[in-house]
Amino acid sequence: MDRMEDRYIGIGRKARKAYGFDEVALVPGNETIDPQDVDITWSIGKNSFKIPILAAAMDGVVDVNFAIEMGKLGGVAVLNLGGVQTRYDNPQKVIEEIIHSSPKKAVEIIQRIYREPIKKELIKERIFQIKKAGVPAAVSCIPQQAKEFGPIAQEAGADIFIVQATVATARYLSSKRKPLDFKSFCKQMSIPIIAGNCVTYKAAYQLMETGIDAILVGVGPGAACTTREVLGVGVPQVTATIDVAAARDDYLRKSGRYIPIITDGGMRTGGDICKALAAGADAVMIGSAFARAKEAPGKGYHWGMATSDENLPRGARVWVGTTGTLKEILYGPARLDDGSQNLTWAIKTSMSYCGARNIKQMHQTEIVIAPAIKSEGKFFQRIQQVSGEK
Q: d(Cα 323, Cα 332) in Å, to the nearest integer?
C-alpha cells in the first residue's frame, strides 16, 4: 500500500523515500506530563509487561540466566531454539570459542558450531529453567522448525512463541518443501504467536489475517546483520514501522483484533526506541544494547542469527564491549552520556515531552524529517569526541 509520494529515480522507474531513525525527530507536544505518570506497559495475549522492550533471540545476548534477569526486571528476553542453548549441554563453552576466535575465522567457527543437531530434550530443559525462576519464557525458531518445536515449547511451559525469518510472509511458494501454514499453526497453539520479520503493509496485513498475535518489523537493521549488504533487501525502520502500523490499524477496524507491532533492530539509544514507538510500535526488540550487559553470555560480542548459514551467511560477529549491568541499561543510573543506559526513563521522559500518557498516545506524536537532528550545534561534541560522537 503506497501512502507516500513516488519519485522518479530514472526513466520510467519510480521509488519512494524511506526514513530511518537518524533522519527524523519527534516534536514536543502542547502539554507535558510528569514522567512518573507515564504508562509504558504493553501486552500480548494474557501477558503484560512493565517495559516495552524485548531482548533479541541472539546467542551472544540471551541465555537462561539473562532471560531470568530480564524477566525479573519487567521485560522479556527471547531464547533462540535454533541456537547453542539447545545444541549443547554446556553452551557457554562453545560461546567462549566463538568469542576468542580471530576475526577471519569467526564465521567459519560459528558455522561449524551450529552444525551440531538441536536436541528436543534441551528445548524442554531450557524452558523449565526459565519458568522455575518464576518469569515468562519466550522462545523463537525459524518457520521450518515451528511445527515441530511449537508443541514441545508449549508443553514445557513457554508463554510466547516466535516464528522468525529474515522475511516472513503468509504465502511461501516452494516446489521443494511444504511451507508453514500460519493459520493452522496459530489454531494448533494455545499461547501467543509472534511472526516476523516484515516491512510492508500488504505482507503485514496478510500475516495478521492468519491469526498471529503480534508482528516483528525490520529486515536487516541490526548491528550484527549483513542482510542489506549481502542481499540489498530492507526498508529503513521508521518507514517500515509506520507502514506496518497502518496495516495494524486497518486490520483493527475490520476485525476488532489489535495486533501489537514490535520494531526489531536498528536501535542503539533511548532516542531510537522513542522514535520507533512514535512511528507506531507497541514495543521494540533490541540486541546490541543488551550485548553490552555484564549478564550477556557473549561478554561484549554478539553475532547475527543468520551468521551460521552454510550457503550465504548474513551476519557478523561484532564487538560492542561491556558497559554496565542489565539493570543499569534498563533502569540506570546511567554511567554513560550516549543514551545507551536507563532506557526506560528515556522512554518515559520522551513521552512526557510529547504529551503522551501511554504508548498508544505516543503513536500520535508528530514526526519531522530532520537530517541535521544529530549534528546541529554539536561541533564541540564531535571534535572532543563526547556524548557518543566518534
A: 12
Task: Using DSSP, state whether 11 is helix, strand or coil.
Answer: coil
Q: How far apart are CA 37 and CA 149, in angstroms?
A: 41
Q: Nearest-5° angle of CA 57, CA 296, CA 333?
A: 115
pLDDT of residue 297: 96
Domains, the chain, with CATH or none: 6-384 (3.20.20.70)
| Matching residue, cell 536436541 | 119
* Residues of the chain below pLDDT 70: 1-5, 375, 377-382, 385-390
Please provide the distance, in angstroms rounded to a whole number, between the alpha carbons at the two ends of the chain: 39
pLDDT at 371: 84
Mutual angle of helices 91-99 and 106-113, in 10-degree steps: 160
**CB within 8 Å of 201: residues ≥ 6 apart:** 1, 3, 243, 244, 246, 247
Residue corresponding to grid cell 516452494: 174
Q: What would the pLDDT profile of 193-220 be if each residue is shown by its tens digit?
A: 999 899 999 999 999 999 999 999 999 8
177 in helix, strand or coil? Answer: coil
Catalytic residues: 225, 317
Tracing cell 522455575 back to the chain, one arrives at: 132
Closest CA to 56 of 267, 349, 317: 267
Beta bridge partners of 194: 162, 214
